[in-house]
Amino acid sequence: MNTYWSQYVQKTEELYLSRSLKFHRGNIDKWADMMQLRDGMKFLEVGCAGGLLCHRLKERFPNAEITGLDLDTGHIDFARRKSEELHLSCDFVAGDATMLPFADNVFDVCCSHTVMNFCNPEKFVREQYRVLKPGGKMVVMDVYNRGAAPEEWVPTGSSEEKRLFDKVWAAASENPKSHIKRYEDRTEKFPAYLAAQGFRNISVDALATVAYAPDFDNVDEETARAQINDDRISELCSAEKAYRMAPDALSESEYRSLLDMINDRYDRQLERYERGEKNWAFRVKTTVLFGGTK
Ligand SMILES: C[S@@+](CC[C@H](N)C(=O)[O-])C[C@H]1O[C@@H](n2cnc3c(N)ncnc32)[C@H](O)[C@@H]1O
Question: How far apart are CA 234 and CA 240, in angstroms?
């Protein structure tokens, strides 16, 4: 059992909500087009976490065989439970991207989203090459923001909230669990790994998505609330992870009060939204997609 990622890096629920805003039903065809995924194909997502993208693709392409793989068994358990809840027959497998538990030449499309830099890049690419059918497509997606400063838009917390947050994270940073191993951080280098493995037709594409814009009239109420809560959950999860790594950094009551302050801030933001007070804040995220054909 390996639950490192879901316990110490990103909670499954946190990833699931954030990805549900990115791979939303209104734009799933755009993502599928860029991956050249069609109904009836065999599709593998490597590092699928809670399986949001697999679920959205299965809803859209009911005859596709959708498999998601992740090292974290907590993510995989969540993905399986969610499949049942959504009545979707995806296959979720616990496994390592650098030793894929699949035979050669099986999949039409292999994709990953923000995973490659956490794996040995040669092995990561080699394994997907091996399991792809001849003519199959590998797609590596990564967030590629330049010059964005989303924090500017979020109302800042009180100095007490900041003090407690900084205190728990300062202590958590001493815990080796907070240091995620990264292999290749330069997204720009990814296509070279695909070419070195023998992939042909190396392509680059990009899609920008609106991650946060609750005040805008083309963002429906449910999405607006989800966007605000996405930020809330990510801050709460951040505090929770830090406290798990450094339980002595704060007293129980300090920790509770930190969570309350974060919640209060987002409750106030929701109240402002309900009153129709607008500040036209928005955040756009760009995703780069590198592709290659076996
Ligand atoms: C940044 S998260 C991205 C998750 C998901 N693709 C998404 O965008 O929500 C990185 C994911 O890669 C998984 N991961 C890290 N190393 C892995 C490996 N060697 N094999 C399989 N999964 C791995 C983690 O468990 C985590 O779910």
Answer: 10
pLDDT in tens, 115-157: 999 999 999 999 999 999 999 999 999 998 765 444 544 456 7
pLDDT band at 283 (very low <50, low <70, confident <90, very high): confident
Architecture of the domain defined by 4-293: 3-Layer(aba) Sandwich (3.40)
Can you state the angle between helices 28-35 and 52-60, rounded to 10 degrees?
Answer: 90
Nearest residue to 96 via CA among 66, 65, 64, 128: 128
3-state secondary structure of 112: strand
Specify the pLDDT at position 156: 66
Q: Which two tokens stand for residue 8?
A: 């110490």
- What type of residue sits at position 243? Y
Among the atoms of ligand 1, which is closest to the Cα of residue 45?
6
Cβ neighbours for 32, distance < 8 A, ≥ 6 positions apart: 38, 57, 60, 61
Residue ranges of domains in the chain: 4-293
Q: What angle do CA 15, 9, 263 make, to 5 degrees?
A: 65
Question: Which ligand 1 atom is at minimum distance from the Cα of 18?
Answer: 9
Mutation probe of ligand 1 site: the residue of 11, 56, 112, 118 with most atoms within 8 A of C-beta? 118
Return the best residue to mutate from 11, 23, 57, 71 for the ligand 1 pocket (most ligand atoms within 8 A of CB). Answer: 71
8 Å CB contact between 57 and 37: yes
User: What are 24-38's pLDDT values in tens digits?
Assistant: 999 999 999 999 999
Structure token digits, residue 68: 């998601």
